[in-house]
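Late entry, written up from scratch paper. The run itself happened at the end of the previous shift, but nothing got recorded in the book at the time, so transcribing now.
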Amino acid sequence: MTEPDRSTFLNRWQVLLREPLVHFLALGLLLFVLDQVLLTKRGDPRSIAVPESVYEEARTLVSGKLNREPTDDDLRVLIDRWVDNEVLYREGLALGLDKGDTAIRDRVIFKSLGVVQAGLKLPPVDDETLKRWFEANRSRYETPTRFDFLEAVVTSERKEALLKQFVDALNGKGKSDTESSLNVFRDRPRANLEQSYGTEFLKGLESAEPGGAWIMLPSSSGLRVVRLMEIKPGTSASFDSVKNTAVKDWQNEAVSKQTTEAVRELAAKYRITRREAGK
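Output as recorded:
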């Protein structure tokens, strides 16, 4: 490039740099690069990865509530709920619903949920539809068979032979050095007992004599020493007697289902990474 050419080139470049459009484009490029750098540091807002801590919390929650190891279905339900909440939180931030609640995640989720539900519309319901729903959910309105019982929780060695000797001692037949504490259970529903302790435990308790002897029963978590105090029969329910309540419950369930579907549609915008069941 000759000296005149170089001078012409520099003059044109200086003129170009003074153009507002060039300044705008340069600023836009700078902001784009800066945003990509920040995005890399804070993570992709359209990507949701379920952290290992969530699985551990779900496992602990199920184990504590149901007194057993969680199944894949148990964990799937809780992880689905966490993902739904994370989607609602992200959507809430995108809508600016965090204003005034920058550090309160639950409030942002609640506000975002309100936005989602504001667009829902309940389908019409007639008596035939409601009756079918009532029959499918009859147990909600019936009082289940309930059990009152005592459990001697053994805190020392739990070998079967020692437990049998302990049961005999509780029933006034011999002595035992087994250490234990007493738990009192009242109004435990039949289904709850089966879920918590297993079918064999429930069958054994049902066949025991109320107010009778201490017995040893197998459960899903090992042998247990119990004494049945009372079995309280359940009561049935008729559609007409609970119709008003059933209408409200049906509406709540319909809203819940529609809400879940709406949130799952929002979730389609995100790349969700989660562990496979059983791993």
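The beta strands are 47-49, 146-154, 180-189, 215-219, 222-232, 271-273.
(Scratch paper discarded after transcription.)
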